[in-house]
Every structure is written in C-alpha cells, then in structure tokens.
Amino acid sequence: MSVSEQQANARATGRLYGVGLGPGDPSLMTVRAVQIIAEADVVAYHSARHGRSIARSIAAEHLRPDHIEEALVYPVTTESTDHPGGYRGALDEFYESAAARLAAHLDAGRTVAVISEGDPLFYGSYQHMHKRLAHRYPTEVIPGVTSVSAAAARLGKPLAEADEVLTILPGTLPEEELTARLAATDAAVVMKLGRTFPAVRRAMERSGRLPEACYVERATMPGERTDTLASIDSDTVPYFSVAVVPSRIANPPAPTEDSPALGEVVVVGTGPAGPLWLTPESRGALAAADDLVGYTTYLARVPARPGQRRHASDNKVESERAELALDLARRGRRVAVVSGGDPGIFAMATAVLEVASSDPYRSVPVRVLPGVTAANAAAARAGAPLGHDYAVISLSDRLKPWEVIADRLRSAVAADLVLALYNPGSRSRTWQVAKARELLLEHRAPDTPVVLARDVGGPEESVRTVRLADLDPAQVDMRTILLVGSSQTQAVRRDDGTEVVWTPRRYPEA
After folding, report:
1. What is the spatial distance between Cα 357 and Cα 337, in angstroms, rounded to a whole number?
2. pLDDT grade, residue 81 (50/70/90)?
C-alpha cells in the first residue's frame, strides 16, 4: 500500500486507542486518558461472564449516554472448558471475534477506545486487540499507572535503587521457576495471585524471600489491604492482588522476635567466569550478604552493592579467610564466601567446613551452594569428553606430595578413566605437566585427545585439542584445565570445520 493510499485509508477509517486507566482510583487516570474517552465514539471493555467490568467502573463518570459500549465478555476465566481447542483455543476464538466487532466500528469511521485497568500493554487485555488491529488501523496507546507502581506507593517502600534489578513475575509460573527467579533477583513483584497464592508463598519461602515479602490487595481501590505476605490466609486472596519484595538497599530486613539477628556463612560457587555462570540461588545469596569474603580475583566478578563490605585477600590464605567469615557470622553478619567454580572442588568449602568444625565456630550456620565446575565448563566447550567415567585430580603439589599425585595418575590411567587435571601449572610449578604426560603415555596412545581449556567463559577463552604426545607444557598455566581422553575418547572434525571431543557412554566388552 502506497503512502497516499495509507493516508486515504486513515481518513476513511476510525482510530483505535488503547487506554490505560491506572490501578483503580479514577483520580489516577491520566488527562490524556480522560480526553480520549471523551472524544471516542465507541468505548470497549473486557469483563467476565458476570458482566461486571472493573475497567468500566473506573471510567464510569466519563461515559456519555451516546457512547456506543462494547462489552467484550470472556467465554472462560479458568482453564476448564469443553472447547475443542482447549482453554487457549477458546480464548483465541474470543479474541478474533472481539477484534472483528471492533474492526466493524473502525471500518465505519468510528473512533474506538479500548479501556483497560493499569497499563494497556502490561499484562493487559487490550494487547490482544492491539496485535490483531494495530497494523490495520491508525492506533495510539495511552499508558496508565500500573498496579506495580500503585502497590509500591501504597506500601511506601521503594521498589529498586541504584543498580538493583526489579523482576516482574506472573504467579502462574511453575513453582520451581518462581523459586529460582525470586532467589536470583534483587526485588520482585508477583502478579496474578488468587488461586496461585499457595504456590507463590511456597516459592517465597523456599527462595528465602518470605521475610521481606509484602502483600497488596486492590491497590487504590475500595477494599484495599496491605500486610506482610506471611500473614495472609490463602483463602482470602483475590486475583487483583500482588506480592512485593521491595528494594533490599532501601528496605533492609529488620530482625524480629521470631527471627532474631543470626549470622551465617554461605560458600558460593561463582562458576569459572562471570555472571552468566551463576546459579539463581548463588546470585541471590551474593545479593543478600552483608559481607563478601574471598580471593581478590573472584570478588571482582561480583557486582558492587551499596552497604556490602568486601574482604579481599590473597589466594593462599584459605584458613584465614574462613576464620574471618565465621567470626563475622558470629557477630550476626550474613557472609558469602566467594569461590570460583564449585566451592566443594579444590576450593573454599573444605577450608570453611574444616574451621567451622572446631571451637568456637561449631554453632555458626554454614551452607554450601554449588557452582559450575571448571571441568564441566571445559567439557561443554569441547563437546562431551566426560561422557563416561572420569577422575578429577589436582596436579598442585603445594598441599600433597608429588608421589601421591603420581600414584593417583597411574591408577586412574590404568583404569582407563578420562582425566580432568586441575592446577596443572603456575609460575613456580613448571615441570608437573611434562611429568604427568610422561606417566600418561605409559598407558595411553600418543594420539589420545587432550583438551586444553583456558579462561573458559572469560575474555581470553581458548579451547583446543591436541594429541597427548604433542602436549606442550609451555602452553599450560594456572588458568588452564586439561581433559585427557580415555582409550575410547573420540576427536572428530565435523562438516562445518569444528572439532568435537566425546567419550562414548558404552564401554566395549572385555
């Protein structure tokens, strides 16, 4: 359609407006919303089968007797229906029919205002009309105050401050998904409560957010109610209610008689690199901590937050770090000990638990949260070299004699296990890789695939595969992990030029 044809069509048809009415109080409608309703020929609104429309009740004082009213009545309001297409099929058919009714008015040159509570494009019913009509007719959307903003205002609690992340969640999500997202975010609002409330409450509790969570029902409407989420009876929760986990910075949790100030230590695995490798649980623990304790390099991966204290130290003082963390927890602080990879694999969990098992720290709560290991990250980049049995061995002789390492290498390679070799070299340890290669070649073929993965997930990531016989110790440093294949491991170059390394899950019969 040419520009002139579009202009002619615009003159011949009516104009579609999606009008946001705000959260419920008619005085919170915008001036523009009132203006559009006054100018409209047709006012359309959605309602349930009982015929009562909250949107209409908000805008009632602005409706004229000569307005053409189009009540778009949902055929279903729950997922129970005998429609052949199920609940989704019933709704799609309804939306198509409703759009056709509005299109008839627009084709006749009438201005149509579809009114909706809140904001039209924020979980609003109008958006279904917008998707079906906005590309065919001149359209304008009038934003409205959302229930999220109204809830925060009625609570008098800031939602997000500084670099905090606010997450908006529908209560209809699966409980596990809600739990993960609540654990990972700084602040949250959960919409669409009603029958979803029991699952939302459980997700709040499982994610550790229940003490912070607030409840707002019918914000700015008659019958408004606010309270702590923990005190709400699930049988009394309507659809028009939200759960709010406000800003941690602006609303620090206060101890109560039921939950006195009690410190704890959480050992957090950050994975091999930055935030992309963090689990939701770990992300939440880092955000909730009063103090972060860890090796300087690992602490640098964690975003700075107002009010948090950081205690950085060298990589060789694990016990001292553990004692510091436990001492802080004894004083009521929530402490996150930051570890690379998984904290239980050649990392800080052992050091913390060792100190926590002695006086005077036995009563300090300690939790360990898993992280993506260096071996798993490297294996994923290479393909699937850890697809069968494998052994994890550190080549560092700082905490155990080389003779022990050599015996374990011989045993693992004799058992034909794939090997994940941690801590292969450093500035002060330059000979271990060559010695390990010598031991491995006693039992492994020279062309055994070896994956050299360096700085996986980081800016200097390098992953490549060499033959065991060609493994060059000079190309290995402390940021490298080695994955040495078994007799069954394959290195295959595919049609796109990439090389993948994988170990079959089936092992040949003896």
Report:
1. 16
2. low
Q: How far apart are CA 454 and CA 462, in angstroms?
A: 5
Task: Flag whether pLDDT at 259 surpasses 50.
Answer: no
What backbone phi and psi angles, to 5 degrees, belong to 198?
-55, -45
Backbone angles phi, psi at 337, to 5 degrees: -90, 115
Judge contact between 212 and 243, C-beta under 8 A: no
Helix (H) or strand (E) holding 204, with range, is: helix 197-206
Contact 277, 371 (CB under 8 A): yes
What phi and psi values does residue 460 have, to the nearest 5 degrees? -110, 30
pLDDT digits (tens, 9 = 90+) for 273-305: 878 889 989 998 998 899 999 999 899 989 888
Q: Nearest to residue 420, comparing CAs of 494, 368, 489, 495?
A: 489
Phi, psi of 171 (to 5 degrees): -65, -10
**Does residue 506 surpass a pLDDT of 80?**
yes
CB environment 481-500: b (16+ within 10 A), e (fewer): bbbbbbebbebeeeeeeeee
Q: How many residues does the chain have?
A: 510
Distance CA 290, CA 332 (A): 10
Q: What is the 3-state secondary structure (H, E, C) of 223-255?
A: CCEEEEHHHCCHHHCCCCEEEEECCCCCCCCCC
Q: Which of 215, 104, 195, 99 is nearest to 151 (CA)?
A: 215
User: Containing H/E element for 190?
Assistant: strand 187-191
Written as six digits, the tokens of 290 are 């009063």
Q: Token match 């409980």: residue? A: 175
- The Cα–Cα gap between 68 and 103 comes to 14
Number of Cβ within a 10 Å radius of residue 375: 26
CA torsion sign, 460 to 465 to 469 to 470? negative
* Distance of alpha carbon 387 from alpha carbon 77, whole angstroms: 48
CA distance 99 to 122: 19
22: left (phi over 0), alpha (psi -120 to 50) or beta: left
Evaluated on CA atoms 195, 200, 205, 210, the torsion sign reads negative
Query: What phi, psi does 393 have (nearest 5°)?
Result: -135, 135
The mean-pLDDT minimum among 9-13, 215-219, 394-398 falls in: 9-13
What interhelical angle do 318-330 and 348-356 show, nearest 10? Answer: 50
Q: Directed axis angle between helix 432-440 and helix 402-414, to 10°?
A: 30
Q: Which residue has the tokens 């990250």?
A: 377
CA nearest 192: which of 211, 175, 170?
170
pTM score of the predicted model: 0.80
